[in-house]
Amino acid sequence: MKYEKMRGGKMEKIKIFMVDDEAIILKGLETTYSWDKMGAVVVGTSRNPRKAVDEILEKQPDIVITDIRMKQMTGLDLIQEVNRRAEKKCLWIVISAYRDFEYAQRACELGAFTYLLKPIEDSKLEEAVLSAAKTIRQSRKSRKILRDYEHFIENNRKVFENYMVGKFSGDQIDEEELQEALARFGGKDWDAFSCRAVCLDFVRVLETKSRQAVTQEEIAGFLEQDLGEAYQYFYFQNESGYRTIILAAQGEEYLVIPVLEREMGRLRQKFSVDFRYGISGISRGIKGLKEVYVQAVENLEQVNGKKRDMAELEQIRSHARTYISQAISYVQEHLDDEFLSVGMAAREVHLNPVYFGRLFGQGMQRSFKQYLLEERIRLAKSLLKTTDDTITEICERVGIPNPSYFTQQFKKHVGCLPTEYRKEAYEKK
């Protein structure tokens, strides 16, 4: 039997508790096996399953090995009672002298890890314990990763919020996903907030200071100190390199243009940088975050000499259908690319991603993200009806390589599973 090596001797021992009303069997279980070599330790035994309940709750073992037929209480009742009362769940290894399928089935229903028959083969029990121990350690590792992630998010709240608002503004997540992300730090009534955006295009560093460029972290720190408690703010950079500040406040008087222009002046002076900027109008709520962002980008491009002037922007609007048609052709040719995005389509038609996303949404009456998913589902339906490709192969061909996510989205849009859809199509033939 191969035992998992303890790294540096620091691997936490798996705690085992044993229950059997036959003293000789209980003693044999405790002393016959090399628990230490298996990375385990026996923390307690009991011949009375009723008394064992309180002991298990107190000692909180990782694994409980129990007989199934005992006088005071069956092993099944023991599992049920401990599971009902315990805060920390354990894995159950059930042993029995009876080849009783109903017992085994009921044990599995109650969450038993495995079911072994007496007389117990040494190798079988060791294999069961090692397998259970591996499951426990993997679970501990997953929980630690999750705790570390939650800790990181909590300690980097502003970074996380900026990132999520940036993704929402760029059409990479929807309104519900953003609300869920922001709510994790305490829900706000965003409908009570007005917001205005400033989009910045850094041009050069003034000669008075020898440095390459002001970093996002430096600007974020400036905003944190300078804006005060009257504002909520979000700061991020888009695919075109523009940096955007969205200010939100519970009073439009905080968002008047002179106040924002004063902040831009302070920013220039503090970091010795020069930039052009566009300021949006005022909007409200979660949806308003995206609206003011798009407006600020448009206004920046109108005043930015390196970008399109007003006449060209009007020309873009008048030729929106042409741009959308070209983008649709590009999408159809690249549906198998899982990384296909609004930014890639925008580059194909030589437009700013944010502006193109808005044009596309207005022309198609749905976002680029929604359209892309619909087209992938449409292609999947066709492949299910006309080919013998496996679900995994179809996932690759439609650009959704995760079969679980593909199945979830297919059922959401079509109303049935991909396998059910294919079966129904074959039956109609």
Q: How would the blueprint of this fold be written?
A:
Blueprint: E1 14-19, H1 23-32, E2 40-46, H2 49-59, E3 63-67, H3 75-85, E4 91-96, H4 101-109, E5 112-117, H5 122-155, H6 157-169, H7 175-183, E6 194-205, H8 216-227, E7 232-237, E8 243-249, H9 257-271, E9 273-279, E10 283-284, H10 285-303, H11 310-318, H12 320-333, H13 342-348, H14 353-364, H15 368-386, H16 391-397, H17 403-414, H18 418-428
Task: Sum up the structure in keywords.
about 425 residues; alpha/beta; 5-stranded antiparallel β-sheet; about 55% helix
What do you see in this structure?
A 5-stranded parallel beta sheet has the order 2-1-3-4-5, sandwiched between helices. Strands 6, 7, 8, 9 and 10 form a 5-stranded antiparallel beta sheet that branches. The chain has helices spanning 23-32, 49-59, 75-85, 101-109, 122-155, 157-169, 175-183, 216-227, 257-271, 285-303, 310-318, 320-333, 342-348, 353-364, 368-386, 391-397, 403-414, 418-428; strands at 14-19, 40-46, 63-67, 91-96, 112-117, 194-205, 232-237, 243-249, 273-279, 283-284. It contains 18 helices and 10 strands. Helix 1 links the parallel strand 1 and strand 2 (40-46). It is of the alpha/beta class and 429 residues long.
